[in-house]
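Q: Sequence in, structure out?
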Amino acid sequence: MKATALEFRLRFWIHVVIYVIGFTAPWDRWLHLDSIRTWQLLASWPARNRWLSFNGATIAVLVVGIVLALAGAVLRTWGSAYLGTSIVRAGAMRGDAMVAAGPYRRVRNPLYLGTFLHTLALALLMPPSGAIFTVVLVGAFQLRLILAEEDFLLAKLGERYREYRARVPRLVPAMSARVLDAGVRPAWGIAFLSEVYVWGAFVSFAALGWRYNSMLILQGVLVSLGLSLVARGFLPQR
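A: Exactly. Output:
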């Protein structure tokens, strides 16, 4: 089932609510479960099977988190640079033109893919039950958003979008471009400003992760969120 117009307009805050619930995992307190983090759980598994030492496994999970956070930031910035931040953050769906440039020549939804990879990185800092809750709900919500957007674009753009949709994968990027370049010029500076939050999350993982303190990384992520809210005031509205 596709998302409603209200869900699309509130998509940022819906993601925030899901993340907050995932981090707090209130049911863990109700069930008196141990407050272990997903990072620790994943590191303990190869350590118990003697594939790696616990220290080595902890580093391996951290590297995975850094790679996921970086991939999410790159995809979102790349997509925003070509699509335009006013469209990325619009409260309503826009279908004035089709942007077959940059990442959109390889994958139809680089922004949603980037957000999901970012979510996987954040899930490492959550309790295991909260991580599962967050990954499942964010994945389902984003799929509903994608279905709504695709129906909207098909109605607006017609056969052009139908042909584009047939050529370009929805979420798994193609190894090579599937359509001709539309010649759109990217706005990199504005895109980086727009995506301060995901880059801040990447820096938090990369710079603070070596302290092996998930709460310290989370503090960096929260600071990044605050900076991104401030940065919104400097973004062009059109």
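The chain is about 65% helix and 0% strand.
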